[in-house]
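In pairs, describe these two lines:
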Amino acid sequence: ANYIFFAALLFIIYSLFSEGLGKVWAVTAVIAVCAQPILTQTATSGGFDLLNLLFIFICFFLTKKFLLKPSPGIFAFLWASGMMFSNIRYESVFFFALLIALLLICKKIQWSYFQSSFIYGLTPLLFLPLFWGQKIHLALKDPFEAGPLKEALGLNVFKMNAPSFLDGFFKFDHLMPYSALLNWMGLAGLAYFIFLAFRKEGFFQRN
C-alpha cells in the first residue's frame, strides 16, 4: 500500500509545483523528494507515516485551492480529507483543528458551507474511531511505541526529541536516514515562499 501512497504523494507534489512554478520546478521537487532517504525507506516498509504525509500534502493542496477560489465543494473535500488525516495519527487532529480555526479567524469560511454537504453532520461519527482507539490505547500497560512515557504530547517530550530532530540538519555523515543538505534546501525554499507571500500581501511596503 505504501507504494501507492508514495506514487500519490509524488503526483500531489508535482501538481502543486507545476501550477505555481512550472513543469521544470515540479520535476525538480519530485526528484528532491525521492532523494530524501527517509521517504524511500518509508515507502518500502510498513507503518502509517507515509499515508500521514500524503494527507498533509492533500490538505495543503486543497487549502491552496480553497484560498484561491473559495467554494462549498472544495471546502467539503478539504473537510473530508482533514477528517481522514485526523484519524491516521493521534496528533494530526490538532493540526486539522488549527487549520480550520485559522480559516475561521481570517473569515475565509462561510457558515452556509456547513449546510451544503452531509459530510459535516457525519463528523462526530467519523471521529469516534479516533477517540475509541485512544481510549483503548491508553488503557494498555505501555501504550507508547517509544517506551514507557507519561504523555505522548507535551513540552517534556519535545525537549527529549528535539536533539535527535536537529541531528538531521547538522550531521552530514550519511549515517542517518535524512539528507542534511536537502533539509537546509527545504528550509531555504520555505523561507523564500513565505517572503513571497508576505511581499504579495504588502507587508514589506512602506506606508
The chain is about 70% helix and 0% strand. Residues 202-207 have pLDDT under 50 and may be disordered. The CA atoms of residues 195 and 204 lie 9 Å apart. Residues 180-200 form the longest helix (21 residues).
